[in-house]
C-alpha cells in the first residue's frame, strides 16, 4: 500500500496499488462536457498524515462513498503529472477503519478545495493587470447578452457575455458553463470571484475577464462611490434635476435634488428654481466630484481648475 508521500514521488501512470486516506474536503459538482454529453466532476482533498493529495472524481456514483470524514482505501486510479489523482468508473473505493489527521492538513485541504476569493479590484486596475492573473471584480451589469453555444476543444459549451461598470471603467466578462446560468440580470450590482484576466483577441476588442470553475456570482446592493463627472446637460422632472454627465468611459444620467444642485453652485438653499437654472445655464459644462449610489448623486462639489486638470 502506498502512502500519499510515496505516491507523489512516482511517475504519472495508472496504479493498482492501494492508498489509504481520509477525505478532508469535497467541492460542489462542477459541470463539464465530453462527447457532447453534459456531466459533472468533483474535486476532493485526501490525506494520510504523510502529505495532502487532490483527486478529481469523474464518476458521480463514487460520491456515495466519498464523504468528508470518511476513511477510504482507493485503487485503480491514475496519478497525473500535476501530482493529483484521477478517479474514474474503473476505480475501486472501500470504506475502512478511521485514521486521525493532523489539523494542519485540514486547513490546507479547505484552502485547496474551497480557495478564498481573490480581493476585488476596480475595473480600471483589472484592465491593466498582468494577463492570466486571478482576481475578483464587482460592478453594475450594463449589458447582458444571450448565452451562445460554442465549440471548445471540439466540445460544445455555453458562454454568456456581460459588461460590468464601476466608478472607474467598464469591462466585458465571459461567463462559462455553470456561471452562464447565474440569475443575475441587467441593472444588478454583482460581485464575481475567481475570474482570470485575458488579452484582447478576435472576439474581444479589449482586455476582458473570464469565469473559472471556482467563480461565484453574488448580487449585492450597489455601494456608494466617488466619481469624477463632467456635467454637460440637464433636464428637470418634478423638481428633481436629471443631469447628463460624462466620465472617462461613458455618458450617463444621474438624478440630483434641487438642494444638492444649489450647494454645488454655491447658492443659498432657499434659492428659487429659476435662479438655480439661470446659474446652471451659465456654468455648464463643469467638472465635479460626486458621491453616487445607483443613479442618484447623493452630494457633489465643483472641482477647481487644478482638480479638473490633474
Automatic annotation (TrEMBL):
Domain of life of the native organism: Eukaryota
Family matches, as InterPro entries: NA-bd_OB-fold
SUPFAM superfamilies hit by this protein: Nucleic acid-binding proteins (SSF50249)
Name of the protein this chain belongs to: Replication protein A OB domain-containing protein
Organism (species): Holothuria leucospilota
The organism's taxonomic lineage, starting at the top: Eukaryota, Metazoa, Echinodermata, Eleutherozoa, Echinozoa
Amino acid at each position: 500500500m502506498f502512502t500519499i508521500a510515496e505516491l507523489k514521488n512516482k511517475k504519472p501512470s495508472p496504479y493498482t496499488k492501494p492508498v489509504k486516506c481520509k477525505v478532508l474536503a469535497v467541492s460542489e459538482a462542477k459541470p463539464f462536457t465530453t462527447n457532447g454529453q453534459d456531466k459533472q466532476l468533483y474535486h476532493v482533498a485526501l490525506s494520510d498524515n504523510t502529505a495532502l493529495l487532490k483527486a478529481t472524481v469523474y464518476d458521480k456514483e463514487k460520491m456515495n462513498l466519498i464523504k468528508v470524514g470518511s476513511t477510504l482505501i482507493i485503487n485503480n486510479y491514475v496519478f497525473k503529472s500535476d501530482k493529483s489523482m484521477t478517479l474514474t468508473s474503473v476505480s475501486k473505493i472501500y470504506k475502512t477503519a478511521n485514521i486521525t489527521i493532523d489539523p494542519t492538513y485540514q486547513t490546507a485541504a479547505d484552502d485547496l478545495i474551497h480557495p478564498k476569493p481573490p480581493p476585488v479590484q476596480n475595473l480600471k486596475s483589472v484592465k491593466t493587470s498582468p494577463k492570466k492573473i486571478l482576481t475578483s471584480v464587482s460592478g453594475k451589469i450594463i449589458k447582458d447578452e444571450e448565452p451562445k453555444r460554442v465549440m471548445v476543444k471540439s466540445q460544445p459549451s455555453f458562454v454568456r457575455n456581460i459588461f460590468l461598470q464601476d466608478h472607474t471603467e467598464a469591462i466585458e466578462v465571459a461567463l462559462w458553463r455553470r456561471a452562464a446560468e447565474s440569475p443575475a440580470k441587467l441593472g444588478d450590482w454583482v460581485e464575481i470571484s475567481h475570474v482570470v484576466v485575458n488579452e484582447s483577441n478576435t472576439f474581444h476588442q479589449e482586455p476582458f475577464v473570464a469565469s473559472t470553475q471556482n467563480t461565484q456570482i453574488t448580487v449585492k446592493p450597489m455601494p456608494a462611490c466617488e466619481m469624477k463627472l463632467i456635467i454637460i446637460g440637464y433636464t428637470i422632472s418634478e423638481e428633481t434635476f436629471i443631469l447628463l454627465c460624462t466620465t472617462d468611459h461613458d455618458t450617463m444620467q444621474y438624478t440630483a435634488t434641487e438642494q444638492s444642485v444649489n450647494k454645488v453652485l454655491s447658492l443659498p438653499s432657499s434659492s428659487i428654481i429659476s435662479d438655480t437654472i439661470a446659474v446652471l445655464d451659465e456654468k455648464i459644462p463643469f467638472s465635479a466630484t460626486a458621491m453616487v449610489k445607483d443613479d442618484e448623486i447623493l452630494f457633489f462639489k465643483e472641482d477647481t481648475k487644478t482638480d479638473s486638470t490633474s
